[in-house]
């Protein structure tokens, strides 16, 4: 009888110890909000989790790159819109006016001064920087202006590109030379003739014609560049939609693999309740065993 009672006490103690261990394990998984704490818990699920996490990190990186690319393209589009306004209104209007026979030499000199101001504004736009301080029309030479004071292109020879999705590369900014061409040089020629004293009518008309053609060509290049920006922005929107779907799917895969999904967490919560009940029962049995006369002697 004594051996049987000792055996029962031992079994009760071991049972309670196991219930404590089980309860602590469930609580630990709940506190970490996942059922998979170690790779040894489920090697297959752990491997799946690592693969999904890597794929998820890659998609989130692409999403961030697309966001910065979108900002860069929108900024360039805003700058080009400003350039377009100067070309289609101010420049065209002043050049047409300067070619008119009704203007005096003094009037044309005044127009020459106005063209100087417009040229300065255009040069400022051509040497504009983005929010990170990078020159947007200098290609990979982002730390240098696209044009010098004479209007000569001194930027890089290759446009910046970024990988925005698997197998998808996108140009971030156009080269200043491709957008502005020889506009500054041709404007300088017209300004010089308008300010010449005495005025040379033939040379002036010739210079204004060259400048007018340069503006027309610039407007064409501008339209092409902005069309490309629009197409790229649409592509980014489409990639974002697809990318968001992939991110959501991969997030679910990771949660399922590590056991942080709603279903698993609900099951863990139920397990914790059952574990608490079992532990309470084991403690009651153990306490009853301790009160037996055999152990009170």
Automatic annotation (TrEMBL):
Q: What is this protein called?
A: Flagellar hook-associated protein 3 FlgL
Which organism is this protein's natural source?
A: Candidatus Pantoea floridensis
Record-annotated membrane-spanning stretches = none
Matching SUPFAM superfamilies, A to Z?
Phase 1 flagellin
Tell me the protein family, please. Answer: Belongs to the bacterial flagellin family.
User: GO MF terms on file?
Assistant: structural molecule activity
One Pfam short name: Flagellin_N
Read off the InterPro entries from this record: Flagell_FlgL (IPR013384), Flagellin (IPR001492), Flagellin_N (IPR001029)
Q: Which NCBIfam families match?
A: flagell_flgL (TIGR02550)
Per UniProt, residues of the Flagellin N-terminal domain are: 4-142
Secreted is among the record's keywords: yes
One Gene Ontology biological process: bacterial-type flagellum-dependent cell motility
Keyword annotations of the record: Bacterial flagellum, Cell projection, Cilium, Flagellum, Secreted
Gene Ontology CC entries for this record: bacterial-type flagellum hook; extracellular region
Compartment list:
Bacterial flagellum; Secreted
């Amino acid at each position: 009888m004594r051996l049987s009672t000792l055996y029962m006490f031992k079994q009760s103690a071991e049972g309670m110890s196991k219930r404590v261990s089980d309860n602590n394990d469930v609580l630990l998984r709940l506190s970490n909000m996942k059922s998979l704490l170690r790779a040894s818990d489920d090697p297959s699920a752990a491997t799946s989790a690592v693969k999904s996490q890597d794929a998820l990190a890659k998609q989130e990186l692409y999403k961030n790159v697309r966001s910065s690319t979108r900002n860069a393209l929108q900024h360039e589009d805003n700058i080009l819109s400003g350039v377009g306004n100067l070309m289609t209104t101010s420049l065209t209007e002043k050049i047409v006016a300067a070619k008119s026979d009704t203007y005096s030499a003094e009037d044309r000199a005044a127009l020459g001064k106005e063209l100087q101001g417009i040229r300065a504004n255009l040069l400022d736009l051509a040497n504009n920087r983005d929010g990170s301080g990078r020159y947007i029309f200098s290609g990979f030479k982002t730390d240098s202006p696209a044009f010098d004071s004479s209007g000569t292109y001194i930027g890089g020879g290759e446009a910046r590109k970024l990988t925005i999705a698997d197998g998808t590369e996108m140009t971030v900014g156009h080269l200043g030379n491709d957008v502005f061409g020889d506009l500054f040089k041709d404007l300088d020629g017209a300004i010089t003739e308008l300010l010449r004293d005495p005025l040379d009518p033939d040379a002036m008309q010739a210079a204004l014609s060259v400048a007018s053609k340069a503006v027309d060509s610039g407007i064409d290049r501008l339209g092409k560049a902005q069309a490309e920006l629009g197409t790229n922005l649409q592509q980014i929107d489409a990639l974002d939609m697809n990318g968001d779907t992939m991110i959501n799917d991969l997030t679910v895969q990771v949660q399922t693999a590590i056991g942080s999904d709603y279903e698993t967490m609900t099951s863990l919560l139920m397990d914790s309740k059952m574990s608490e009940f079992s532990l309470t029962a084991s403690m009651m049995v153990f306490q009853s065993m301790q009160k037996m006369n055999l152990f009170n002697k």
